Amino acid sequence: MKEFNVKDFGAVADGTLQTEKIQSAIDACFIEGGGKVIIPEGEFLTGGIRLRSNITLYLKSGAILKGSRNPEDYFGYINDKIEPLSESEITDAPYVHVSGVKGETEYVENREEYRYKRTPGSRWNNAIIRTINAENVAIIGEEGSVIDGDNCYDEIGEEQYRGPHGMTMFKTKNIKLSGYTIKNCGNWAHNLLFCENITVSKITALAGHDGFDAAVSRNITIADSEFYTGDDCIAGFGNANIYISGCILNSACSAMRFGGTNVLVENCRMYSPCRYSFRGRLTKEEKESGAMVASAGRYNMLSAFTYYGDYTLPIKEQPGNIIIRNCEMENAGKMLHYHYGREGWQRNRPMTDITFENVVAKGIALPMIVCGDKNVPFTLKLKNVNVDIGNGEQTPDTFMYAEDFEKIELENFTLKNFKGDAVILKKSGGTVEAINSDIGKAQLTTDASEKIDVRSI
Q1: DSSP symbols for 369-419
Q2: Rounded distance, CA 420 to CA 216, Å?
Q3: Distance from the CA of 341 to the CA of which of 100, 122, 182, 406 falls in 20 to 30 A?
Q4: What predicted TM-score, i.e. pTM, was given to this entire model?
């Protein structure tokens, strides 16, 4: 494999912007048919660089690829002469917030609102490292290598402060990511859209926003990695064939906010308090200065698993066959948050089923929410699940609020330190079946009042 050291193209670790020199090394490697582009030891300041097909970006031990704090330094793709983008691949469409205020019909009819996400050349898709219509790419880091977004602030970005992602990969296949630490990204650490065949191993994501976010992507493996994030650890929707194993998920939102088809999560630890606070609590001054944590931060995990599926992108396959097994959960607000159709993030296609198997959960503070779609039967299975509510300041009056489901199955389910009257508060739905389960003195189910507001629990 041919090697191209960025220093040979004039790149220096002197605190000045090195984008063009790093890009020159990548372009030379691409023209030669591919190979390895080396970032040596030292801190190299850069704006947005475009990684191309058949190239490995290799960070040596002590290498720091540091993102510029100027959001205007991430538009190099507009004048790309090697692989120019067409006019249809570039947009100035702004970020549109998915609030859930609009009805479903309006979401479907106004898909043009989401050009910011569906078009590769957009401000929202800007990143330190990006690929577009590429294949056979890798980002490999030796121990001690870092990609640092420096919390780039963009006053016209998402939520009027989020800057570029750590990396955006758009319509890219055969991706390998391994070994590096990525931190303090202006937006998500990893943003993958319409990608396939992705292997992630032994990476660490620190602070910033989502650690890994993939949408409408296929065949993803994430193994032996650690996520300590100021937003969701692993997120995305419309995905298929996902395997997540041996990961630490320490989130100030959801360990997973995810939707997909054929999803297996195993041997993971999901817990809080979190190392970094939720970034939504930052003050305007803290956002502008690039602060790592909020002075009035929130460090609790809202949910171990939140379903995700909005209209910003199409969901091509029926979500379901989601299995979470052999996992530990500690101090999560909820084990599951499935509130279909009631929230902006859960208005596209609903899921058919999710299973928790061989799961130990401690310190659960809020009821599990199981609210499906009236037209798509939904099944929840809890098999060999041990839940200890704990003795925290906040404990749930009911373990689960259920509405519009087909079946809830409890098998070898144990619930400890639960002080409520009923395990499941059922407003509407199908059957509940418990086999070899220990719920103490509580009832299995009771009917909910029509006046119950799920947000209050």
Answers
A1: EEE-BTTB--EEEEEEEEEE--S-S---SEEEEEES-SEEEEEEEEEES--
A2: 40
A3: 122
A4: 0.96
